[in-house]
Structure formats: C-alpha cells, structure tokens
Design brief:
The structure holds two protein chains of two kinds.
Chain A (H helix, E strand, L loop, with lengths): L1 H16 L2 H17 L10 H18 L2 H19 L12 H13 L4 H12 L4 H8 L3 H22 L6 H4 L1
Chain B lengths: L5 H11 L19 H22 L2 H8 E5 L2 E4 L36 E2 L1 H7 L18 E5 L5 E7 L5 E8 L3 E6 L3 E7 L2 E7 L2 E7 L2 E7 L2 E7 L2 E7 L3 H9 L3
Parallel strand pairs in B: 2-7
Antiparallel strand pairs in B: 1-2, 3-4, 4-5, 5-6, 6-13, 7-10, 8-9, 9-12, 10-11, 12-13
Classes of the chains: A mainly alpha, B alpha+beta.
Chain lengths: 174, 251
C-alpha cells in the first residue's frame, strides 16, 4: 500500500503544506492512520481517494495547529544536525525553470485562495483526480465538487487577472 | 460560449501538470526511524493497545471479537485465533464433502467432493464462472469442484503433470463462510485498485455453508479479493505480483 500510494499522498501533502519535511511527516502519518482505521475502509471502493482524504484532513489539522510554528522553529534551529542524526537527508531546493516555474507560480497563487477553493483545485488540477474521486476525498456529492470547482476557478481567474495575467493566457481569452 | 471556463480550465490543468514536486521520500523505509517524540508516542499507544488486548482476551466472549481482525466478502481472517485441527467436524451432521491435508507442494493436493465439468458447473451456479487469461498458456482448469448445496462456489484447479494442484481459483458467492485461522503473514495489496489480502501458510482454512464443511491446511500463498458480491481466492505458489496479474486477468 505504501509503495503504491506514497507519491500521491506525499504530493498532496506538499501541495497543502508547501514544506517537504512536513509533507513527509503527514504522508507517513497518513499510512499509520490508514492501518489503524482499516476497518473503516470500504474495500469496494478504490483506496487512493480514501488515503488522500486522510492525508487532506491531517494536512489541514497541521496547518491549523500552533505546533506547526513550533516545528518550524525547531527545524530552523536544528535542521542540519537533526537531519543527519535521523538519517533524513537535508533537502536542497532546486529552482524550477520553464513550465515548472509557471506551475509553481500557479500553485503559489492558488495558495492565496480560501481553503475550500484551494483543495478542489489541488485535487482536480494538480492531482488530476476525477470528479468522483474528488467527491470521495472531500466526502461531498459529485455535484458539490462541480459547483465548488466552478466557484474556485472563478476566484482563481480573478486572482490571475489581477496578479499574473500572462500566466494562463486563457484568463482573458475565454 | 457554452462552457465559460473551458479553455481557462484546460490552461490551468496544463500548467498544473508541470508542478515541480520534491522527490517523494521512501516512506516505507521511514517506518522504523521516526522522531524520538513520535517513537515514544507509538510505544505508549502500542502498550495501551496491548493492555486492552490482554484484558479483552481474558474474557472468553470478547476473545472472538479480538481474534476477528479482517473480513473481506465471505472470507474472514482470524489472527491469533485458536486453530481447529485440519479434520472436518463430522459431528455437525452436515454433508462433509471433502478433506485435504498437508502436502509437500505449495498449493497441495486438492481432492474435493462435487467434482464436475466446467460446463455443468456454469449451468449449476448462480453466477458467471470467470477464468484467468494470464498466463496466456494456462487454458481451462483441469478439475472443477462445486461447493455447497445448492452450489454457492466453485473451485477451479490447474494441475501439474503429476496431478498436483499448481493453481486453484475459488469463486465464492454469498452463502459460504471461509475462515482462515492465524496465517503466518497477512499482507495488504490491491487487485484492480481495490484492497486485497495476501496470506502465507501454514494455516488452516475452513469452508462452511449449506452442504459443505471443509478444512484444509494451507502451506503456500493465497490471494483474496472481492469484486461486487463475489469473493475470490487464488491459491498459488506464484509471487504476489504475478498472482495479482492472474487475478486481474479474470474474464
């Protein structure tokens, strides 16, 4: 289960948290929670949305938690020593270029939206989940996903038009 | 303009596809090196769970609840449960159809009552019998056994030149109950994106239902998965990945 789904879970956690170390912690916690709550999983449904739902909730909780700031401070103070001590590699950021740079810019602008808008865009456009899969992750009907997506795109469009009109050319062409 | 956000939506999707994610860490390799504080929490939770289990296990009525850990369709996997002998309970008065005991080969000898042909089985069963198309040279099963009265399951067996089973596929509808007593290992996997379990012997498996009561010693591996109302078991000496390929090839 971990090998098959770790990439998707880690990526969603990263989209929501923006920090690879925190994303790794949340991804790991996701699988621990999944094992502990396996009895709640409906084996007739695909596992990916179920795991992403757990991941999404954990990431949300982490964002809301004051401990996030404590962790950030802790990491700032001892990142190198801690990273070496527990075998976790110290990450070096590689500046993206071209399409990747555009995508990262888009992700940052999506980050300025409200949580409801952010999560539907993360799931539908960055994670490329279907409407049905997204509805399972968010535990809302597919129709609600569509309406949320519609609203979120309208708000994103306004943000892009104001802050980055050249990023998605269609922002003015549609 | 029927879809006002159509082109914009596509543009967003095209850009988002190039998102530069950090390299995904190998999370499975991190399970044993969590942070000290997390490790302490895990230990505390583990000790607490152990205490709960010990207390519950001391109460006979609760023991069965503790033992029944996993259920998938008509199959239940009982961890730490008292293992019955691999001899059927004839005292129940049921129509004991078969017994197969320990064998030197992974799948083992399979010699049930209710042997029939594939055509007759298909006519008698309330569901469509599905056959694996992988490996390509597998062909139809060498032996076919109906399970239950009226039939609620079928065992399809492919044998080697010695007549020993090398692959056995059980297709089980509601009405049967398959119990696996304390397998050596239970691994979670997926068949067509849906949770499945891979168990390893030796352990005892028991099939009960109207007109059937079978207990066998499983020595090799069994892949268990569910599709709709049907539960499937694949007894095999194949590796897990190959077994999943067989499972996903049913037509």
């Amino acid at each position: 289960m971990v090998a098959r789904h770790q990439e998707g879970v880690f990526r969603l956690a990263y989209l929501k948290l923006g920090d690879p170390d925190e994303a790794e912690d949340v991804a790991q916690e996701t699988f621990i929670r999944a094992y502990r709550h396996l009895h709640r999983y409906d084996p007739n449904r695909p596992m990916r949305p179920w795991l992403l739902g757990i991941c999404s909730n954990l990431a949300k909780n982490r964002l809301r938690s004051l401990s996030r700031y404590w962790h950030a401070l802790h990491r700032w103070a001892g990142q190198t020593a801690e990273g070496l001590a527990r075998g976790r590699p110290v990450r070096h950021r590689i500046e993206p270029a071209g399409d990747a740079r555009q995508a990262e810019r888009l992700w940052q602008l999506v980050g300025s939206l409200k949580e409801h808008d952010r999560e539907v865009i993360h799931l539908r456009f960055f994670m490329e989940l279907s409407v049905d899969e997204t509805s399972q992750v968010l535990e809302v009907p597919p129709g609600t996903v569509k309406s949320r997506q519609h609203r979120a795109l309208a708000r994103l469009r306004a943000v892009l038009a104001a802050q980055a009109p050249d990023l998605v050319p269609e922002v003015v062409d549609d | 303009m029927t879809e006002p956000t159509g082109a914009f939506e596509k543009g967003v999707r095209d850009i988002a596809r190039s998102m530069p994610y950090p390299e995904t860490p190998d999370l499975s390799g991190h399970w044993h090196r969590r942070r000290p504080a997390q490790r302490a929490l895990v230990w505390a939770v583990g000790v607490a769970l152990l205490l709960v289990f010990v207390l519950l296990a001391a109460v006979p009525s609760a023991r069965a609840t503790v033992g029944e850990m996993i259920r998938l369709g008509v199959v239940r996997i009982l961890m730490g449960a008292e293992t019955p002998s691999a001899t059927p309970d004839v005292s129940r008065g049921g129509n004991v159809t078969a017994v197969a005991t320990q064998s030197d080969v992974p799948v083992g000898a399979i010699d049930f009552a209710g042997e029939t042909t594939l055509e007759e089985a298909a006519a008698a069963l309330p569901f469509v019998v599905r056959l694996p198309t992988h490996p390509a040279d597998l062909g139809p099963p060498d032996r076919v056994f109906l399970q239950g009265q009226p039939p609620a399951g079928v065992a399809l067996v492919w044998t080697d030149p010695k007549g020993e089973a090398r692959l056995a596929l059980f297709e089980l509808a509601q009405g049967l109950l398959v119990s696996k007593f304390d397998p050596q290992t239970v691994t979670m996997t997926e068949v067509e994106g849906v949770t499945a379990y891979w168990t390893s012997g030796p352990y005892t498996v028991e099939v009960k239902g109207k007109g059937v009561e079978v207990r066998r010693l499983i020595e090799g591996h069994v892949l268990i998965w569910r599709q709709g109302p049907m539960t499937y078991r694949l007894e095999t000496d194949l590796e897990l990945r190959e077994a999943v390929r067989v499972a996903e090839s049913l037509e």
